[in-house]
Amino acid sequence: MSSQIEKSLVLIKPDGVQRALVGEVIKRFEQRGLKIIALKMVKPSIDHINDHYPKDEKWIERLGEKGFTTFKEQGIDPKQAMGTADKKEAGKMVRKWLIDYMTAAPIVAFVVEGIHAIEMVRKIVGPTLPSKAPIGTIRGDFSVDSPAVANIQKRSVKNMIHASETPEEAASEIKHWFSEEEIHDWARPDHEVMF
Ligand code: UDP
Ligand code: MG
Question: Ligand 1: which of 159, 164, 166 to mutate, judged by most atoms within 8 Å of the beta carbon?
């Protein structure tokens, strides 16, 4: 297989499933020429989600930082809003809320395969914060949430989708969610006219 053909993991988070947007989400990947090669509905355990998200300091600080950037733009004092102005402390809190969010109800997990799939999927999904996500992306079209509201309410930002960010993340996440037997090798005949 060409090295340009990549696989990426996508999760439709509880808000996407509960809002009955599963079909709408899957359509957006299929219409772009990406192929679904594995798919299931799961009610994940706390441990499964805890092991899905990175645990390293850098990633946790980045979680805290995403909220702080929004606070700054909105003129919100992080210490007053969250009880801390420390990125790492805030990141740890957000990570816990994220686990609560992801384990609250069933999610839909699938693997997408295609040309530059990791970047393509992220482009279709849009940036992390729905308040910043451009119209035309899934997060931009179907969500409006912001850390300026979520962090103060002590909950995760509801942004409907998870998508792998890097080839390393994709490889480990696909292994975490799917066995080899659950991943299917099949051909889309329309690909012959697409590329
Ligand atoms: N998140 C949050 N508040 C923040 C930043 C992130 O609740 O200020 C949640 C959000 O659900 C996001 C997840 O944490 O999807 C993982 O964050 P990451 O930075 O990896 O963003 P993603 O890769 O999902 O765009
Ligand atoms: Mg991420």
Answer: 159
Tell me what the mean pLDDT of segment 83-107 comes to: 98
Distance between CA 120 and CA 126 in Å, rounded? 10
Residue 138 tokens, joined? 């899934």
Instruction: Confirm whether 184 is a catalytic residue.
Output: no
Q: State whether CATH 3.30.70.141 applies to domain 5-185.
A: yes
Of the residues 128, 131, 138, 155, which should be mutated to test ligand 1's pocket, given the most ligand atoms within 8 Å of the CB? 128
Q: Please state the domain extents for the chain.
A: 5-185
Q: Which tens digits make up the pLDDT trace of 107-124? A: 999 999 999 999 999 999
Q: Which residue has the tokens 């992306």?
A: 137
Pair of tokens at residue 109 = 């997990």
What are φ and ψ of residue 109, in 5° steps? -110, 135
Q: Is there an atom of ligand 1 within 6 Å of 103 CB?
A: no
How far apart are alpha carbons 154 and 172 in whole angstroms? 29
